[in-house]
Amino acid sequence: MVSSGSTQKCILGIDIGTTYAGMSYCLMGPGSIPEILPVTRFPAQDHVGGDSKIPSVIYYDRAGRVKACGAETLQESVVEQAIDDRWEKAEWFKLHLGPSNPLNQVPALPTTKNALEVFSDFLQYLFHCAKQYIVDSYPNGSALWVELESSMEFVLTHPNGWGGVQQAKMRRAAIRAGLVPDTPHGHSRIHFVTEGEASLHFCVMNGLATDPLQLGKGVVIIDAGGGTIDISSYRKVPGAEGDVFEETARPQSKLHGSTYAGDVDHIADCFDKTTKLRFRRTDSWQYIKFGRPSDQDESLNIFNGQLRLSGEIVGGFFRPSFEAIFQSVFLVGGFAASDWLYSELKMCLKDLGLDISRPDSYVNKAVSDGAVSYLLRHIRVLARISQHTYGIESLTPFDANNPEHRGRKPITDAAGDLVLPKMFSPILYKNTRVSETQQYRQHYYKMKNDPDGLNLVRIHIMCYRGQDPNPCWTDVEPEQYSVLFTVHADTSEITPILPCKFGANGAYYCLEIDVVLSFGLTELKAEISWNENGVEKR
C-alpha cells in the first residue's frame, strides 16, 4: 500500500503483453479520491484517445539503436524504411524472458539484443509516453511530473507461470530503463503482480460477481489477449476479514494464431483490429480490408483490396481458443471484445449452469488497471496452486534388486557406499495448494572425507516442467529441468564439531541439512536449515 503524504504521488501500472501493451495510473494527493485512469495517447496512434493499447513491437537498426516503437511500427513510411535499411523487428520478445518452452514458436530476437535489453528499451519507451501523457493532460504538467517522478511506484505484470527468476530480470530491465535508481529504495518501488491476480483486482474493482463471491462461489477469469489466453480461477476465503482469495486451479495459457498466404503480417494485423472483433456468425462472409481497390485476385478470394473468407473458416480460427476457454467466468483482454467469442461461451456455459460476464468498456486495459488496483487495495490471495514440481538433484543408495537401478552406473560416496547420481528429489509437487505461511522441507545429508569441504553448502533449486507426476531422474527429459536459483549457506561454525565416522573409504564427515521451500506474495523462496548446538540455523 502506498502511504499518503503532503504531496502528490503516482502509481503506474505497466502491462507489456505478448502482442500489445498498455498502462494505467493513479494520482493521489491530500483530499483527492484516487481514480485509476488509462494512458490513451501514444505517438503515431490511430483513434487517439480511444485506444489504450499499442503493439509490443520495436524496430532496431543494424547497430542496435531503437528506430520505432509501438504504434510507430505500423506506419507505412516506417515499414518501408525498415525494409530498405534492413532494420530488425522485435516482437513477442516478452516470451524470451520466461521459462524456456520448446513448444512455443517465438520469433527470434534482433541479432544485437538480448531479451532483457529489448524489454528494457520498451519499458523506457512506455515510461516516456506516460510522462508525456501526464505532462500534457494536467495544468502545470511539467512541474507535476517533477514532483511525481522521484517517488513513483511501478507495478509490472507478468504471466501466471512466472516467478522470482523472471521478476529479477524485469527489475533489472526497469533499472536499465531508468524507471528507478539501482538502490534498495529504488528496488522497493518496483512491484509485481501476475496477470491473473491483476484481472481479479479489475473484476472486483468493477463490482463483477460480488454476490456469488460473497457466497463462497468460485470465479474463472479468462484473459483473452491478442496472442495468448490465460485462465485463472479464485474463490473468496470463507470467514476471512476483507478481500482474501485463494486460487482454486492451476493457471493455464494457450497460444493461438493462424497463417495466410500473401502479406501475412499486414493481413493478420488488419484481421486482429477489425474482423476478429466484429465476427458474429459463421453463415456469412467475412472481409479483411488490407490493400488498395486495385488489389484483385479471384483465385485467392481477394476483391477490391479485401480478402474474403467464409464464416466457417473464420470460426475455425477461433475454435482452438474457444475450446481452451470452454474446457477450463469473467472475460477480459483484447479478444474479449469479440462478440462471437462472448455469445458462443454464454450459450455453451448456460447449459452447465454457469454465467459469463465481461466489462462494458476497455476490456483490453483490465490488466494494467488491475495492476494499479493491486497496490491501492492489495486484495490478498492467500493460497495458490504450484505451477511445477520443485526440488533438488541428489544421490540415492544403489539397490541391486531394483531393475531401474541396475540399468544405471553407480558411483562411490565419501563413506564408500554405492550411490546413483542424477536423482531428482521433489520437495513441492505440481498442483499442490500452497499458502504464504506453509513451508515444504526435505531432509538431506552431505558427506566429505575432508570436513573443510562442508564449510560452504551450495544447493541448486530445480524446477521440473514436464507432465510426469513423479519425476525421478534429471537425465530423463533433461530439457524439462532447469535450475531456478542457487542457495548458499556458510556452515563453517558447525564443521569443527562434526563427529568423524569411518567407512570403506576411511574417515568421513556428514552434515545433515533441510532444504526449505516457501512462497511469498508472488515468488518461490528457499533456505538451507541445519542444527547447530541444538539451535536451528538458516
From TrEMBL:
CDD domains: ASKHA_NBD_HSP70 (cd10170). It comes from the Eukaryota. This is Uncharacterized protein. It comes from Mycena metata.
